[in-house]
């Protein structure tokens, strides 16, 4: 896809910090709402297109795989051409793909539209993360991402509920019409409010040797590895719950299907609370110290979950309350980890953001497969996996981040 050369420094538009935070939050939310808004439509897709559930699941897995892999491509593209053209092209592609999904006459075309949608979404998210690194130092960047993450949480909080209403009234096509409208609104806001933020795009960054060298430099950074491992462990714990919670809450603990969305929203509210806590912690502590406190909360919540399950308190409250703590810890850890991992790379922020996102998605995919393979009709595989992920998070925060110089 051709990109125009980035705007000159004189032509850049600088929105207010509040407007930028809102835009960043909405850009990041696009990933979660792309899935959450049509989760309620999955059973209906199988009936509409007369295909098995496994085929319908490809609309999810294909999105995740394309989104994860394309971060490695679009990160360097944003370093070469700038954030603005990648962002705008991503929104245009996302809107077109969402409209195609709404009109899809077959499951194959719907899956193809979801892949295109994932590529567009990836461009938006990678550019958004890089914009924060371009515009702020690590501490201020973490604060901005924490505030933006409070907006991001709206997607998983309201997405499943709104998706259920849309499915009942309009079928699966209603969800994709709404996603098209969201992308178009974001595109208009971007064209009016935002300009290029990358100070000196690098002409040679798309040569294969340069891409490989850039990613090697990113991966060699102890700071990148430490913060990315923290975020990966924390996100893996969340993804374990996302992958296995419906089976455990509904199939094992007896939560009515109609109430599952509210149970999920309760845990997401923990994430929202964590983003507010992150902002307060950063006002008093460094990014590294804030990460250590978030990791301690994650570990305490994971171990409490494990203790309650093995003590026989196998009730929905025994699963949801500690898991809300794990989500709250992620609300603290993710903004700090995103900012901390990209801090050493002012000229390669796109590559760093791409590798960061790819590694998180790769770990999540492994954990999701593990949850599916290990489910045995009890709460133990899910509880053990979440607890193990919080142990990794804590170790990475205290040994990895805590061991960094400065």
Structure in words:
With 406 residues, the protein is mainly α. It has helices at residues 17-36, 42-49, 53-81, 83-103, 107-135, 138-152, 154-170, 172-193, 208-220, 222-252, 257-282, 287-310, 316-342, 349-374, 380-401. 81% of the residues lie in helices and 0% in strands. Helix 3 runs antiparallel to helix 14, helix 4 (83-103) packs antiparallel against helix 8 (172-193) and helix 5 crosses helix 14. It is globular. Mean pLDDT is 85; it is low at 1-12.
Features:
mainly alpha, Growth Hormone, Chain: A, 2 domains, 406 residues
Kindly report the average pLDDT value: 85
- Count of DSSP strands: 0
Helix content: over 70%
CATH superfamily of the largest domain: MFS general substrate transporter like domains
- Element string (H = helix, E = strand): HHHHHHHHHHHHHHH
Can you tell me the overall shape?
globular
In percent terms, what proportion of residues is strand? under 5%
Summarize the entry for a quick read:
By secondary structure, the chain is mainly alpha-helical. Helix content is 81%, strand content 0%. The protein is globular, with a radius of gyration of 20 Å.
